[in-house]
Amino acid sequence: MLSGSEQFKDWMRRRGFTQADAGRYLEFDEPYVSGLVSGARTPGLANAIHIERLTGISVEAWASELDDSAKRQPAIAGKRNVAKG
Prior knowledge:
Blueprint: H1 4-15, H2 19-26, H3 30-38, H4 45-55, H5 63-72
């Protein structure tokens, strides 16, 4: 099974999305998307569920990366760009 970041890159490629496009579609800021693509970041549970709903990439796909990620960086939630009305 491909890792979450590999599946995410494949999803972007199949849709013809740049990182900016993916950020707009998922309502994530570009640095967060860049981290997902590079594998430097992993989504928290809420963001993994959000990604799964919009892309079909399962929450479980990120599981192996969560173990490695916890060793590299503190757990910080990604920020979604939510329009304020």
